Amino acid sequence: MPSMEEKALGERSSEPVLIQRILAGEKDLFHDLIRPYERGAFLLAYSILRNQDDAEETVQQAMVKIFSHLAQLSESDKFKQWAMRVIENEAKMYRRKRRQHLYESLDESSTEASDDKPFYPKQFADWRDLPSDAVEQKEVREAVAKALAELPNIYRAVFVLRDMQHLDVAETAEALGLGESAVKTRLHRARLMMRESLSPIFAKPKVSIWERWKGSNPWLAAKR
Amino acid sequence: MVSCKTIIANLSEYFDGAASVEMREKIEKHLRRCHRCTAVYDSTRKMLVITGDERIFELPTGFSERLHGFLNKVISNSGAH
Question: Do B71 and A63 touch (CB under 8 A)?
Fold first, then answer.
């Protein structure tokens, strides 16, 4: 059986072939081409629009553009970055159309230019160990969604592409039309901010001195 | 010892394996002694595990079916030309 890496490599190397075949007329293969990116596309659009219906409509429209402009993709091994860039542009256009930016302008202007301000953590509590199925718990999902929604837009897109969709720094930079150093700076900030806002939820509960004493007192333990 | 500020500022690069050998050694030495930075390191690592898991974010019910249904129409229309 092929390993995970081999499988991923196989999938990626077959992408240019898929594109070639679609362009040659096997248009139904477009479904297979985009299937690995559905989740990421939705997540990216949602991170910009913060509304599920708007994000879904945006992904549908962007996928049509990707389909009809596929011949314009000059480097077929860069489909992922290109597709994400189309999604991002479509989501931004949708936001402008809906005039959402009018309501968000305050939020954007206060955070857009703050790349160089250092961010220093304020929460230093140890986190509890989280089981691998923690991600399927409703409260964990809600906490992450809320922390993500609270990230300023410029950090959110970088975080979503890099840490949730696992694009590398160069791919993220290409998808967002940014330099690699901007990606690194924003990513660093986004990670610290995400950690900060999730800390109160995942921190180990504080044990009072009394509880600690009770736990270490053999006489009390024997009585229980 | 390198300051906590320097350690925190380089933590992201360290996570990505992009920190220089010298910086990596400084960070590891610092983490052995500094409880606060270890807490930041450890919680960031845990945060990245959670957010990097694709199960953390559920697609809306029927999203994929609607998307491919929509694309089906677009694709068949494009074939008609």
Answer: yes
pTM of the model: 0.82
- Separation in Å, CA of B38 to nearest CA in chain A: 9
ipTM of the complex as predicted: 0.91
Domain A103-208: top CATH class: mainly alpha
Please, what are the averages of pLDDT over each run of 10 residues along chain A (224 residues)? 54 80 95 95 91 95 97 91 95 85 50 63 89 90 91 92 95 95 96 96 79 70 57
Q: Which residues of chain A are in CATH 1.10.10.10 domains?
A: 103-208
Q: To the nearest whole angstrom, how far is the Cα of A156 from the nearest Cα of chain B?
A: 12
Where do you find CATH 1.10.1740.10 in chain A? 1-98
Between CA B60 and CA A60 the distance in angstroms is 14
CATH class (in words) of the domain with range A1-98: mainly alpha
